Structure formats: C-alpha cells, structure tokens
C-alpha cells in the first residue's frame, strides 16, 4: 500500500522585523522588540529557513503542517510578510497551520492571524463561511488533521497557552467520531501537551484536561512546536501510547544550546488493519550541514 507523507515544521519567527511605530511598542512588544534586536535576530535566520523549506519541498510531501510562531511581536506588517512566506511554502489546500503564542503576542490584535492567514486555518467546508473556528478538521488521504489554537495574549515574560473549554468540548465530540471513521488522527497544537522542565512560564495551562481527553478518545499522533527542540514524548491513549513530537524552529542557526533548524517527515500507511508511522528527521547539524538526522518507526 502506498503511504501518505506528512511534513512538519514550526516556529519560523520570520525576520526581518519591520520598524515598529513608537505607539506599537507600548506594551509587552517593547520587551519582544528589544529581545529581537539583542539576540533573536541572530538565531532566526531567513537564509536558514529558505534552505530548509527548499529541502522539505524537494521531498514532495503530500501535505505540510506548520505549528505556529510565524511572527515575533505581532506587528501588522509581520502578518503580511508571513502571508507571503506561507504562499511560498504551499497552497492553503496543501498546508495546514495553527497559531502560536507569538502570533497573539499582545491583546487587541487577535483578529490579525485569522484574517491574514484565514485559508490556511480553515477546516474543510469552512471556506464558504469565512469563519476561523478551532478545532478545525481537514481530511487529506488517510489523515484527519485536527488543528487547535493555544494562542492567547499573556503578560510580559509569560508564553503560556490555553485551549479553553469550548475547544476541549469540541475535541471531546470530534475525536471519537473520527476514530469510528478509521482515520489516522493528527492533532496540530503549538504548545507541547506535557510541559518540559523549566518551562512553567511557557506551559499549556490546561494540559491536564487535554491529556485526559487524549487518554479517553486518543489520536494517532500529536505534532507541536514552541520549545524549539527535538522532542518525543509518549502519552497515554485508550489503545496504547500516542507519540507527541516536537520540532526545532525552522529558522534556527546553531548557537549555544539552540537546536538548529529541522523538520520531520511522517510516512503513514495502513498494513493488515494496523497503522504504521515512520518518522524521518532532516535538518542542520551544529556545523550547519543539511541532511538526514535520524529515522525511526513510531508505530
Ligand atoms: Fe517559538
Ligand atoms: Fe511559542
């Protein structure tokens, strides 16, 4: 049986930063802007991202998932530039996106990403209504791609996320329905479902409730970003363990303890009534050579 190839990248944190107006820097943005000028602009490089995306496209994936943090301090011009970048990655039909905390960096701008990136965030059939509703559902080949938003504005020095009870209730209805349709369910979420050590101020605030939902109804795979690191964590599911896979920032230049830019490829097929999923990691080494990093059978 032929397999379906899903590519996953995250956290491009697109530069260069547009020049903000002074009034745009009133708020948490001032800290973010200072951080970008001081350090982050040297980590998140457009040339690194360009090379990584070209390599990803050369693998000819059937679909591409992007798990947020396209922008940095959520200036209006950043959303416009991110839209152009998205179009260079693929069409809205072939690319599924969920937002990250940097895409909702400050209050009062939350309608920027649903507007600028709308068709990359729409579920099947939602294009006519123009509404962005999470969780969304997209069926591609044997996959059910379920996208959620954990992007909420937070106080300075916080990068937490939250699903909220409305999205969790929808997941509680959607996941068992999709299980009965025999689809390979992939949950796209910016924040990792299990908080990494030292990341309390950047955690998913309702992670316990999400883990409970997953243990009851299951998905086959969880893909996330946010921590800018390679990560594989196994979650409890109703019929065995669920792999939750994190990927580094797609634009990260190797510096200090930063994981250099990488992306994942998941090859999914059904064999003798059982799902098979193999992960292949491609990305940069510490000396910025691009190639295969590892390959392993997940399920
Ligand atoms: Fe990020
Ligand atoms: Fe993030």
**β-strand amount:** 25-35%
Gross morphology is globular
The rounded distance between the terminal residues' Cα atoms is 16 Å
Order of helices and strands: EHHEHEHHEEHEHEEEEEE
Low-confidence stretches: none
Question: What is the arithmetic mean of pLDDT?
Answer: 94
Q: What would you give as the CATH superfamily?
A: Metallo-dependent phosphatases
Count of spatially separate domains = 1
**Which CATH architecture?**
4-Layer Sandwich
Rg from alpha-carbon coordinates = 18 Å
The beta-strand count equals 12
Major beta sheet, specifics? 6 strands, mixed
CATH topology: Purple Acid Phosphatase, chain A, domain 2
Provide the CATH top-level class.
Answer: Alpha Beta
Oligomeric nature of the chains: single chain
The hetero molecules present are: fe (ii) ion
Number of helices: 7
Structural class: alpha/beta
Identify the strand order in the major beta sheet. Answer: 3-2-1-10-11-12
Helix content: 25-40%
